[in-house]
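User: Hi! Is it possible to get a structure for several chains at once, not just one? Here's what I have:
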Amino acid sequence: MIIVKIGGGKEINLEGIIADLAGIDEPYVIVHGANALRDKLAEDLGQPKQVLTSVKGYTSVYSDEKLLDVMMMAYAGLRNKRIIELCQQHGINAVGLTGLDGKMVRGKRNQGIRVYQGKKLKIVRDFSGKPQSVNTPLLHLLLNNGYVPVLTVPIIDEHNAAINTENDDVVRVLQKALEAETVINLIEAAGFLENKDDTASLIKNIPASDLKARENQVEGRMKRKMLAVRKLFEQGATRIIISDGRGDHPIVDALDGKGTVIA
Amino acid sequence: MIIVKIGGGKEINLEGIIADLAGIDEPYVIVHGANALRDKLAEDLGQPKQVLTSVKGYTSVYSDEKLLDVMMMAYAGLRNKRIIELCQQHGINAVGLTGLDGKMVRGKRNQGIRVYQGKKLKIVRDFSGKPQSVNTPLLHLLLNNGYVPVLTVPIIDEHNAAINTENDDVVRVLQKALEAETVINLIEAAGFLENKDDTASLIKNIPASDLKARENQVEGRMKRKMLAVRKLFEQGATRIIISDGRGDHPIVDALDGKGTVIA
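Assistant: Yes, the chains can be modeled jointly so their relative placement is included. Here is the combined structure:
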């Protein structure tokens, strides 16, 4: 079992990814983002995203009800359905699902984020949280009947409300439930770069024992991604490939060991 | 088996509909629209919908690639996922699907619409078409495992491309496949009105033999709706209820025989 995580950047080659997937024999589940699309749509609708910075310095998108609406449009609507259409055109009988559908991904809503407003400390609560479990019987029901699940946010919280979450965390819960050996993480970079501005600084292999050190080496989204990778390892994944989603054959390249292989 | 068609008008009481559905014992499938949401979103994005008028005088929405994008956002994204969320909050384990997902609704793309451009006759081809079949095994797979399918457009054409279609036509294909006895059609009116501007002119019962005459009596969307109703009867539905989707208890009212009952 392979889990294919498709990043939400605007340069990701969806057509190339889906064409490659049509040629592989092993079963797989797709998880995709749409952050570039979400940000553009939010801008176009005159409600640009707001970023919260916690007192500890972590940043996150402020996911109020309106942002969730935009997410539903961008992730569950446009991006998911165009991916499903591409899949069908390549002979993959895909079914798109958010975490709400059949309670596919259940999570717990965040209690609140401590932020400074000017000099005042304030607790802001939005519709975001952490995934905790997936509906494994529904996944198997679909897979056993020839359907490829294509998952995206939002997920469903403990009160059955839609919440935003990190797709990397969805991948982690999914990997554990399906006992997937391989996770392919397609991003807008060649893989893990020693120097993020130098594509030639690609690290081709990272032993699991070096993950913590690598995590400390980077910042921002890549730091969060490396933390997700480390957790994936701790729970049993045997191979994680961080690879370029922009090339002509992103999946073939990833399985050929291009990008960064963590094993 | 009941098919519940929820109209896409902005006054439809989704919460009331879903709360009612949580209380009924018979199995059902939901089909929903989102036309008010689509039109607003298209306006907000600066690409208002264009209406084509065929040489025969029929009107239809010009469904180019951009309009399909907007439809995916409005129907498959925002409206479908908020309905799924409402279902989950009322204990209904719903799964939202477009016609693309698992090739749930297959159709045939229209060859082209003959329109006048000034005085020139032109054939305009867009991404629209007619549904022809549904994926009955996938519907039964979901229903037999406790999931309620919640369907919406787009559907998939003979070349596996996304196309727009009338939800009333999707209902017709679905009714036949599931041999549903009852179809509830929730609209923004009390039912079939003798005089569309007078809510007191509600016709409470229409015998199937009068359908053709009633169809000739009305215009626009209602004419198309009555044609769909007549076709439903011809293929075996035994009860069709056109009822108000705006009240506190739209489903309870419909099953109580409020609205227009055709039997």
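DSSP finds eight helices and 16 strands in chain B. The first strand of chain B starts at residue 2 and ends at 6.

User: Great, thank you!
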